[in-house]
Amino acid sequence: MKVLLTGATGYIGKRLLPSLVKQGHQVICLVRDAKRFHPPASLKASISVIEANLDDKETLNHLPQDIEAAYYLVHSMSSDKNYMQKEIASAKNFRRALTSTNAKQVIYLSGIVNEENLSSHLQSRKNVEQELAKGNYALTTLRAGIIIGSGSASFEIIRDLVEKLSIMVAPKWLNTRCQPIAIQDVLKFLTGCLLNENTYNQNFDIGGPDVLTYKEMLLGYAHIRSLKRRIFVIPIMTPRLSSYWLYFITSTSYKLAIALVDSMKIEVICRNTSINDILNIHPISYESALKAAFSEIKDEHILSSWKDALVDSQSDFKLSDFIEVPTFGCFTDKRSRQVANQENTLDRIWSIGGETGWYYANWLWQLRGFMDRLNGGVGLRRGRTHISEIHSGNVIDFWRVIYANKDEGRLLLYAEMKLPGEAWLEFKLQNNQLHQTATFRPKGLSGRLYWYSVLPFHFIIFNGMLKQLSK
Questions:
Q1: DSSP strand pairing (331-338 vs 395-396)
Q2: Are 125 and 111 in contact (CB under 8 A)?
Q3: Is 216 within 8 Å of 176 (Cβ atoms)?
Q4: How far is it, in rounded angstroms, from Cα 332 to Cα 335?
Q5: How far is Cα 229 from Cα 77, in angstroms, rounded to an integer?
Q6: Matching InterPro entries, A to Z (predicted)?
């Protein structure tokens, strides 16, 4: 069967793709930026890639006619004022493009929408569902609440809060109830619905067997980790203060914190769960979902992470926009050094950032990350998805990986911190010589003043880092 998969570079899409291939399907992956798409070699014989932008209907004119089904896994967690209109426009473009294909079914993963007064993000999900339902195909909508899995935003926020804080003074939405579901069960439902006529033109809520408050979820995590934690809920914390609370304590971005707080005030409990009987699926408990997530982390088998999404980047971000490092009007800091062992240096470069750190004056990197967070930036808390693997599109602390080729010995990073300009950091290893180049393209006088103000720190940090990488 030929299946179209949108959102193939996203958290769910990356995990769904291997399941579809394992079932014998040919998968057409629709991605906005093909340079961010890195499927395992074992899957490549069963997939093809189409680069298209759902915002631009002209890019959707060449969908294969013989598509039999499609997955719509595209969501925005942006805080932009016009994101609801953009989501509707994207759904409309997608629906119209499918009319020229043989698609019999679209499967849409949405959020549980039980309340009359929905958050703006849940309302947007519902609007998209209504738009997709207008197509000449059968629509199956799966509505999920909190998804628990290694690398999911929900799991990582719970993990941050419990691991970092022994005592929490938390906002009142921690008493809101929800019904979490394990990522492996989400994948079972998504694949089980495929061309199953019993699911056509219906919507279903999917969730695990446990109905818990967010406070109970935090304490449940603490129990699994054998941590003693106390949580005090206070009614005086406003949504804005709640967003700041999440932003400064966890690794989430401020945009995502606003969206999450907005949605966490709404109770998300499953109502129509007939899908469990239709597909004979029995979701696992919250505790089992946590244990499965820990198992993936322990084995370093995290297939996808929300941190690699572009929610923190500029809206029109494509890797190709920044792969050519500019020279005109730019400041550069170039350093070179002979390396003792080329393979060892490459391994060090490919492990940089995250838990490994930056090899020299880490406290200065942490200070810069803290200052970025105070200014509304991403800081260092995103870390990295894998301890020793890097692919273009990944994040490394407050950098985005633009290009990574270990065989060439080249790694190019683009800064996503708050800056009065644009910045790149490049490593090139050739003939046992390591070349390290920092490039900054300033915006106005403030950009030039910024560059000169950090020059003394560059001398300390970049020189020390180069020495450590060259050992």
A1: unpaired
A2: yes
A3: no
A4: 10
A5: 30
A6: DUF2867, NAD(P)-bd_dom, NAD(P)-bd_dom_sf, NAD(P)-dependent_oxidoreduct
Q: Is 226 left (phi over 0), alpha (psi -120 to 50) or beta?
A: left
Largest CA distance in the chain: 67
Dihedrals phi, psi of 24, to nearest 5 degrees? 95, 10
CA distances from residue 404 to 38, 112, 130, 390, 447 in whole angstroms, order as listed? 12, 38, 41, 7, 28
Torsions phi, psi for 50 (to 5 deg): -120, 125
pLDDT of the chain, 471 residues: tens digit per residue = 899 999 888 889 989 999 999 999 999 999 888 888 888 888 888 999 999 888 888 888 888 999 999 999 988 655 466 778 888 989 999 999 998 899 999 999 998 887 677 777 788 888 899 999 999 999 999 999 889 998 888 888 888 889 888 998 888 888 889 999 999 999 999 999 999 999 999 999 999 999 999 999 999 999 999 999 999 988 776 767 777 777 777 777 777 777 777 777 788 899 888 999 999 999 999 999 999 988 887 766 666 666 666 555 544 556 767 778 888 889 999 999 999 899 999 999 999 998 899 999 999 999 998 888 888 788 887 888 888 888 888 889 999 999 999 999 999 999 988 899 999 999 999 889 999 999 999 998 999 999 999 999 888 999 999 999 998
3-state secondary structure of 436: strand
Under 8 Å between Cβ of 172 and 322:
no
Q: What angle in degrees, to the nearest 10, is found between the helix axes of 444-470 and 362-374? A: 150
Residues 34/69, Cβ–Cβ less than 8 Å: no
What is the C-alpha radius of gyration for the chain, rounded to an integer number of angstroms? 23
CA distance 258 to 239: 8
**Phi, psi dihedrals of residue 375, rounded to the nearest 5°:** -95, 10
Check: CB of residue 221 under 8 Å from CB of residue 162: yes
Q: What is the DSSP letter of 359?
A: S
Residue with the two structure tokens 């998969």: 5
Task: Using the CB atoms, write b or e for 310-344: b if 16+ within 10 Å.
Answer: bbbeeeebbbeebeebeeeebbebebebebeebee
Length of the chain (residues)? 471
Report the 10 Å Cβ neighbour count for 284. Answer: 17
Do 28 and 52 touch, CB atoms closer than 8 A? no
